[in-house]
């Protein structure tokens, strides 16, 4: 019998990975005879001295650059608009995004406006961008979102208090420079939350309804790399091997979810970020064990695989069901060890907003690929569980 037919594997990006790979910028500039670069970033990247590294590389390539460094976390349509204006004034012919997912997403959004014009909200949804975006180099400085290789950009529309996604092959960066050295300056708390976001990508992709052999191999390897290195990256931030494994793990998790989308965690985290500005990684980390508990029954063997990949159990131990529960416990232990909060108490979530957040979550395409069929009332229950923190203890396992 034929299984799922694989029509394509999305990766429109040339990946240049390795310590000090940022030094390949002049070669790229020369290969395209580019004359002026727009650098898109944020204040934290500037303060960490990472912007200077890019400016130096442009100087090595003998071209000028214009800097836009006002991207905020969960970037808004207004920021995309402001950055697009700077692009037009600068006459840049190449864009360089450097930072976490926020600057990279703005750089990607602006790259499609540069060739298609209009407003970023015009392209909300999947496959709505007519023309390929401008040449773009994406340089991640967090091991988290994998925006450097994905076909998505996530932007917040404050008028609607809504975080929307644009998904198109036309907005993928042309080059991803994936240099672990640039993540050494990431402080422990951000290493923890962005790293857990990467783990969520890997787990949601692995159990997605759209998972297939290529995505599964990538996602499972990502789970292994991330769960094996995140504690060290958080507690010994200058350990370059751990940083390398984290960035590699987040990258391949991105390649996986580019082809499967994600699941209920991401569908639910977007309204929390849009309404309460909860950082993306924190929202996902708190939601993850609750959503795993909800999903586990739909596919215990995959959750058993996750527990094994996380090193929590061995293949022959206990039953498939008991191993699947251990996956949830392994995620909780990891979160606890790296200091991730287990509740939303710091974000003053108003229970009266849950119905509206559930409506917004249900609009996400991620709900359709979640392994367990999900109704609006399921999302309401999950939000209530997270907000009332009915999840602080480990799940009892009996074999
Ligand atoms: N495009 C995609 O496929 C995709 C996937 C998942 C999430 N996202 C989006 O990405 C955004 C989140 O991105 P993020 O979690 O990477 O965080 P972020 O880009 O918002 O960065 C968080 C903070 O980390 C700082 N920082 C980043 N790298 C640093 C470094 N090396 N040294 C010191 N400080 C550093 C930044 O200055 C910033 O203050 C959200 O908007 C989310 O929705 C996009
Ligand atoms: Fe994410």
Characterization of this structure:
It is built from 15 helices and nine strands. By secondary structure, the protein is an alpha/beta fold. It folds into two domains: 170 residues, 3-Layer(aba) Sandwich (Rossmann fold), CATH 3.40.50; 200 residues, Up-down Bundle (Dehydroquinate synthase-like, alpha domain), CATH 1.20.1090. The strands form two sheets. A six-stranded parallel β-sheet has the order 1-9-6-4-2-3, sandwiched between helices. A three-stranded mixed β-sheet has the order 5-8-7. β7 and β8 form a beta hairpin. The longest helix has 23 residues. The mean pLDDT is 94. The protein binds nicotinamide-adenine-dinucleotide and fe (ii) ion.
Structure keywords:
399 residues, alpha/beta, Rossmann fold, Dehydroquinate synthase-like, alpha domain, 2 domains, six-stranded parallel beta sheet, three-stranded mixed beta sheet, 15 helices, 9 strands, binds nicotinamide-adenine-dinucleotide, binds fe (ii) ion
């Amino acid at each position: 019998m034929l299984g799922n037919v694989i029509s394509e594997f999305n990766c429109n990006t040339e990946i240049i990975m390795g310590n000090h790979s940022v030094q390949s910028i002049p070669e790229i500039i020369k290969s395209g005879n580019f004359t002026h670069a727009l650098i898109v970033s944020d204040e934290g990247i500037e303060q960490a001295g990472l912007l200077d590294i890019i400016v130096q590389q442009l100087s090595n390539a003998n071209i000028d650059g214009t800097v836009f460094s006002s991207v905020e976390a969960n970037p808004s349509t207004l920021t995309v608009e402001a950055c697009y204006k700077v692009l037009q004034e600068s006459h840049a012919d190449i864009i360089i995004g450097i930072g976490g997912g926020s600057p990279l997403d703005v750089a990607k959004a602006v790259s499609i406006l540069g060739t298609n014009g209009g407003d970023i909200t015009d392209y909300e949804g999947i496959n709505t961008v007519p023309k390929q975006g401008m040449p773009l180099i994406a340089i991640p400085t967090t091991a988290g979102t994998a925006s450097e290789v994905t076909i998505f950009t996530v932007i917040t529309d404050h008028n609607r208090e809504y975080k929307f996604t644009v998904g198109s092959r036309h907005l993928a960066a042309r080059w991803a420079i994936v240099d672990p050295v640039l993540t050494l300056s990431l402080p422990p708390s951000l290493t923890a939350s962005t790293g857990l976001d990467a783990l969520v990508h890997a787990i949601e992709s692995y159990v997605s309804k759209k998972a297939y052999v290529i995505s599964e191999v990538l996602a499972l390897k990502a789970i292994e790399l991330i769960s094996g290195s995140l504690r060290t990256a958080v507690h010994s931030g200058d350990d370059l091997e751990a940083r390398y494994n984290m960035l590699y793990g987040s990258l391949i998790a991105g390649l996986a979810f580019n082809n499967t989308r994600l699941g209920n965690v991401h569908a639910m985290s977007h309204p929390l970020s849009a309404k309460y500005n909860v950082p993306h990684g924190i929202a996902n980390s708190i939601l993850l064990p609750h959503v795993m508990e909800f999903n586990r029954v739909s596919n215990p063997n995959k959750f058993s695989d996750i527990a094994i990949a996380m090193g929590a159990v061995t293949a022959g131990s206990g039953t498939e069901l008991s191993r699947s529960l251990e996956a949830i416990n392994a995620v909780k232990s990891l979160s606890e060890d790296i200091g991730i909060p287990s509740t939303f108490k710091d974000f003053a979530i108003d229970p009266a907003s849950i119905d509206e957040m559930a409506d917004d979550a249900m609009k996400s395409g991620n709900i359709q690929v979640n392994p367990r069929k999900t109704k609006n009332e399921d999302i309401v229950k999950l939000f209530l569980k997270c907000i009332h923190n009915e999840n602080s203890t480990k799940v009892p396992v009996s074999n």
